[in-house]
Design a protein that fits this description.
- About 15% of the residues lie in helices and about 40% in strands.
- With about 260 residues, it is of the alpha+beta class.
- It folds into two domains: about 110 residues, Rossmann fold, CATH 3.40.50.10330; about 130 residues, Probable inorganic polyphosphate/atp-NAD kinase, domain 2 (Tumour Suppressor Smad4).
- One of its GO terms (cellular component) is cytoplasm.
- It catalyses: NAD(+) + ATP = ADP + NADP(+) + H(+).
- It comes from Thalassorhabdomicrobium marinisediminis.
C-alpha cells in the first residue's frame, strides 16, 4: 500500500470509538469517505455491518478495529502502525442476501442482509411457515418461534445461537435454521446452494403475526418472504494476516 493511501475513519456512537476516531483521523490525516481508498471502521460487529451497507456504492475495502463488544468481523485495535497493517491486510469478498418481504396488505419491502434474513413471531402464538426452495415446496408446515437464512459470513452470529451450523466461508452454501422448532420437533434445518431462491410463506399471518428482519432492518405483519443471494454486490473486508474469516470460522468451531 502506498504510504499516502487515503484513509477515512468512521466510528460508532460509543465514546471509546469516537475517541479512537479522533486520534486516528489526526494521526493519519483522515479524508472524507468520498475520497477514501480504505475505510477504517471503529466499533463492534453491528457497526461494521452498518458501515458495509452505508458504503456499498463506494467499492472501497473496509478495515474494522474493535471498539465494541464482540468484534468477529473486526481486527484488534491499535493506533500504531496502521498503514503497515493495512499494507499487509488480506481481503475477503462476501455477497449479501437480497430480501423481498410482502406485508399482509400487499406492500413490498426490500433489504439486503450480510449476515442473515430472519422471521420471528410477533405475538404469543408460534409462527407457522411454509418453505419453498427454487419454487418447489420443501416443507408444508414448520411450527416455530421463527426461522432464518444465513450467509457463511453470518453463520457464527444469530444462526449459531439458534444451533445452526458454522459454514466455511468458501463453501457456496446458505444455512437455513429454525428458531425453537416445535414441529417437526427434531428438524435441524438445511444447507442450501448459494444460488437457491428461498420463499417463506407465513400461514395464517393475521392470527399468527410475523416480522421479517435483514441485518436489523425490520418489517412487521409479513405474509411472505423471498430471499436470494446477490452476487452482483460485493463487500470487501480487510483482515490482519492469519485472522481472516476462514480462519475465524474454523477457530470458532473449536472454542
Amino acid at each position: 500500500m502506498p504510504p499516502q493511501m487515503r484513509l477515512a475513519f468512521v466510528a460508532s456512537d460509543a465514546p471509546i470509538a469516537q475517541q479512537a476516531k479522533a486520534t486516528l483521523h489526526a494521526q493519519y490525516n483522515g479524508v472524507p469517505l468520498e475520497e477514501a481508498e480504505i475505510i477504517v471502521a471503529l466499533g463492534g460487529d453491528g457497526f461494521m455491518l452498518e458501515t458495509l451497507h452505508d458504503t456499498q456504492e463506494l467499492d472501497v475495502p473496509v478495515y474494522g478495529m474493535n471498539r465494541g463488544t464482540v468484534g468477529f468481523l473486526m481486527n484488534n485495535y491499535s493506533s500504531q502502525g496502521l498503514r503497515d497493517r493495512l499494507a499487509r491486510a488480506e481481503e475477503e469478498v462476501i455477497n449479501p442476501l437480497r430480501m423481498t418481504a410482502t406485508s399482509v396488505d400487499g406492500t413490498l419491502h426490500e433489504a439486503l442482509a450480510i449476515n442473515e434474513v430472519s422471521m420471528l413471531r410477533s405475538g404469543p402464538q408460534a409462527a407457522k411457515l411454509r418453505i419453498h426452495v427454487d419454487g418447489k415446496l420443501r416443507m408444508d408446515e414448520l411450527v416455530c418461534d421463527g426461522a432464518l437464512l444465513s450467509t457463511p459470513a453470518g453463520s457464527t452470529a444469530y444462526n449459531y445461537s439458534a444451533h445452526g451450523p458454522i459454514v466455511p466461508i468458501g463453501s457456496e452454501v446458505l444455512a437455513l435454521t429454525a428458531v425453537a422448532a416445535f414441529r417437526p420437533r427434531r428438524w435441524r434445518g438445511a444447507l442450501l446452494p448459494k444460488a437457491a431462491q428461498v420463499t417463506f410463506e407465513i400461514v395464517n399471518a393475521a392470527k399468527r403475526p410475523v416480522h421479517a428482519d435483514a441485518d436489523g432492518v425490520s418489517f412487521k405483519n409479513i405474509a411472505r418472504v423471498d430471499i436470494r443471494s446477490a452476487p452482483e454486490i460485493e463487500h470487501r473486508i480487510l483482515f490482519d494476516p492469519g485472522h481472516g474469516l476462514e480462519e475465524r470460522l474454523i477457530r470458532e468451531q473449536f472454542a
